[in-house]
Amino acid sequence: MLFRSSGRHGDRYLEKWSLLQHPDAAAEVCALLAERALAVAQAAAVEIDLVAGPTTGGVLLAYEIGRLLGVRGIFAEEVAGESGTPRREFRRGFRIPPRARVLMVDDILTTGGSLQALLPPLLAAGAHPIAAAVVASRSPELRSIEAPGRESIPLIAALTLDLPTYDARECPLCAAGEPIGAPGSSGR
Which pTM was predicted? Predict the structure, then answer.
């Protein structure tokens, strides 16, 4: 079976809910990510002021890692932009102080698109993303998140796997006629 959920195609799928449905196990992974994020922050001689997540899994991770670090955990929702293009926006009541040093968190990383989508509202608020942490990275070559006009943001992964993915136009699985599945997709 061919899987598609990040816009990329591949023959293996990682299901975040296999971990996140078990609070004790998820808390252990969050503790590891918090520890690694603190090491990155200390190396940069900064503190983490806020944790922000861009997706449903990122919401849970932001709150737990925020709790572990003793800071707030917030999230951004996908909303329709003026031209109908989806964008991320923080919930009403979530204020980001100017110059806040932010740890971005997400569940499964393939392209980094969800974390990239979190950058505009953070940067618009004057925040300074200092690191991005994910439960699992499917892309070992992706070691940072690029922010146009800024230094790259280091990427921290609890687990890194080399799981090949393909652009739909170059997908050998599609060429072989494999059926497409999108487990975990909200259908949007």
Answer: 0.82
